[in-house]
Amino acid sequence: MRGFRILVSVLLIAVALAAPADAGQSRYAGYLFTYFTGEGTPDGEQVYFALSQGNDPLRWQAPSGSPALRSTVGTQGVRDPFVIRSPRGDRFYLIATDLRMYGRDDWERSWRHGSRSIVVWESADLLRWSAPRLVEVMPETAGNVWAPEAFYDPARAAYVVFWASNIYPADDPGHVTTSHNRMMYATTRDFRTFSEPKPWYDPGYSVIDSTVIRHDGEYYRFSQDDRGPGGGGSTPCGRYITEEKSKALLSRSYDLVKECIGKDAVVGGEGPLVFRSNTERKWYLFIDEYGGAGYRPFETTDLDSGDWRPSANVQLPGKPRHGTVLPVTRAEYHRLAAAGRL
Known about the structure:
Blueprint: H1 2-18, E1 28-36, E2 48-53, E3 56-60, E4 78-85, E5 92-98, H2 107-112, E6 117-123, E7 133-136, E8 146-153, E9 158-166, E10 181-188, E11 198-201, E12 207-215, E13 218-225, E14 240-246, E15 255-261, E16 270-276, E17 283-289, E18 294-300, E19 309-310, E20 321-329, H3 330-339
Antiparallel strand pairs: 1-2, 1-20, 2-3, 4-5, 5-6, 6-7, 8-9, 9-10, 10-11, 12-13, 13-14, 14-15, 16-17, 17-18, 18-19
């Protein structure tokens, strides 16, 4: 522990010395990584935290090895954790898929008769979190709710929460007919009460794991083209990432930017997460190589190009799977580092 504290002190000093002169650019001092590690171990489907080495999003401090958060509700397993900062900056919400696959090999059941709820935690400081709560967001016609994410919409003064679901006819309570995952959404102000779900992205074949970033008045959406075994046939871009953009978050017709992202570097990719550098005009896209080592980082200086290049000199915290990278302020970074529980 003493060695850890010394390392933390050195890192904090390095962050201060490396801070840019532009005070507006120096709001953030690092990143918090939230993720799960897979279904191969009893604790793999819980929430893990890792802290970056200062403002370097490609190098991370080794976490403690224990989950930061455990689900005691629903299936008592969680995947795909996503954390969002409130618009006022005084609260954080962490949402996740209610799914435990450890010791099982029945993915078909998980999309036909899986949980229709999401797991929610909230915190004021990223250290002390509420007990998890289970919130149902889809009716009985749905077979699953996967990879929930959220984006705050100031025009609605509410969060838009979106996820992937298979949906079956009302006269098929056994969910035996053919369906496919499509992206649904609902709105909420408190992550307790949600509006009725509506379709957002349904190209007629299976898509999952959408994530969004906004830049210069455009929303950029990244999703996995899930065509493949169980996903509605095959295609050259199946099981890779598609980038689109739109001026309206909830548009039903985003414009295509690029397909097959990650195909030359990973063998099957899902769970994209995207964020902007704290220190320069650069964006990072992490793609979860689910059958391999977990996340692989890519980067670009032009979101409109769709040209994502694999990052070099990467040091990730073990084998992280589908999660979130959240920029944190200097005060937040200091508190997280000093806690030593990552």
